[in-house]
């Protein structure tokens, strides 16, 4: 949803895409769920020449409109949402000069289980949002006044 939202509006100061879907068509071809993903995305792409219904709901289709800084994190061994989804979005954002970071955790699937990766993700997420959300009006607990 984060990848979708930042392609629809610039109201957010920062975002994080965690094991997110950027293109429903390629997800159908590469994920463990196959045709179920076609039902969720609206089409599979082999129905004929596009654009296809899944193009209208794929964040990659709106990458040129993204202005929000986004942290992209993904597990290297994710079979639910393969890491190519993160790489595809990263490449699109790079093409359009969007501020973002891509972090791929080795040996991780759709959920991170290695403790050092969990800790790194927590620290990295906090640092990302502190970087982009800090406005100088925070109290000692880090909350905005």
Structure description:
- Residues 137-145 have low confidence and may be disordered.
- The protein has a single domain (2-43, 53-133), classed as Alpha/Beta hydrolase fold, catalytic domain (Rossmann fold), CATH 3.40.50.
- The protein has helices spanning 2-8, 24-30, 35-41, 53-56, 84-95, 115-133, and strands at 15-18, 70-75, 100-105.
- The longest helix has 19 residues, at 115-133.
- The protein has 6 helices and 3 strands; from the N terminus they run αβαααβαβα.
- By secondary structure, it is of the alpha/beta class.
- The protein has a 3-stranded parallel β-sheet, with helices on both faces.
Layout of secondary structure:
Blueprint: H1 2-8, E1 15-18, H2 24-30, H3 35-41, H4 53-56, E2 70-75, H5 84-95, E3 100-105, H6 115-133
Parallel strand pairs: 1-2, 2-3
Helix pairs in contact: 2-3
Q: What oligomeric state is this? A: single chain
Number of strands: 3
Rg, rounded, reads 16 Å
Strands in their spatial order, largest beta sheet: 1-2-3
Report the span from N to C terminus. Answer: 27 Å
Question: Which labels suit this protein?
Answer:
alpha/beta; Rossmann fold; flat; single chain; 145 residues; 3 strands; three-stranded parallel beta sheet
């Amino acid at each position: 949803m984060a990848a979708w939202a930042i392609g629809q509006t610039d109201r957010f100061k920062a975002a994080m895409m965690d094991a997110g879907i950027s293109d429903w068509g390629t997800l159908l071809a590469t994920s463990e769920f196959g045709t179920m993903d076609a039902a969720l995305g609206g089409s599979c792409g082999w129905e004929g020449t596009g654009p296809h219904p899944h193009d209208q709901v794929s964040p990659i289709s709106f990458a040129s409109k993204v202005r929000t800084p986004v942290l992209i994190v993904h597990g290297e061994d994710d079979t639910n949402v393969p890491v190519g989804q993160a790489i595809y979005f990263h490449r699109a954002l790079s093409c359009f000069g969007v501020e973002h970071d891509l972090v791929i955790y080795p040996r991780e699937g759709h959920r991170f289980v290695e403790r050092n990766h969990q800790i790194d993700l927590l620290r990295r997420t906090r640092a990302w949002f502190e970087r982009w959300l800090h406005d100088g009006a925070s109290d000692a607990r880090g909350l905005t006044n």
